[in-house]
Amino acid sequence: MKSTMHLAAQYLATAAISFIPKKDDDSHTNLGWVNHALETHPFPNGDKLGLNYEHFSLEWKYSNGNTEHLLLNNLKHKEIVEWISQMAAKNDLRNSYAYNLHYELPYPPISETTSFAITNQNELNHLIKNRDLAQYVISNVLEANHYKSPIRIWPHHFDTGAFINVTEKRSIGLGMATPDTIINDYYFYISGYNGHQPIDVTITNSSTKKTYYNDGWQGFAMSISELDKSSAIDFCQTAINTYINSEK
Hints:
This protein is α+β, with helices and mostly antiparallel strands. Strand 1 and strand 2 form a beta hairpin. It folds into 2 domains: 2-119; 122-245. It is globular and about 60 Å long. The protein is 31% helix and 23% strand. The strands form 2 sheets. Strands 6, 7, 8, 9, 10, 11 and 12 form a 7-stranded antiparallel β-sheet that branches.
């Protein structure tokens, strides 16, 4: 279900590309996580498009709080595109909807007959649990350190992340990534930067050293299978403290 939800999230990304004024950092395409659903930034008319994990549906979220749903199970790509286009026209969005991405995904190309289906409900429930954990941990870490940052999901790599400017030059990226070449599981990561360059840190603690990566990508990472809410917060805080103390 991971690839299915990643692909389904691209309808939100392409809606954002179609309707929301472009930002140079692509942040107009990133998504929020609210009540077990992804959602776009507001469109010019105040509406949003959502992807509800519990109902496996797209949601047209009106600015007045009302919602219209499109159940995705066994729907074809062509039908989904038509629904979004109709909703956009009905709600007076000036731009027409187009399913056009400016990045590549690690899946076969979408065709008009590509369909979506719930193949594993337990796996879908697990994906919800992962996103909930990421939202909880990141928000608690931000609050504990008095950091201000939106927590957003980027539709390309599908990570949940926040970015904090600690000083004028130093910044920290914090989030949960999907399985990749670093760790073949969902994992929390913390990376520090001096300007655009990764911060080099000296690790003396043997347990901390096991979670530090310095081959291509520099930062701390740990599989969520080894963490609960409390230990995940502790892991993130320890990594942040390591970067903060490296300034001294």
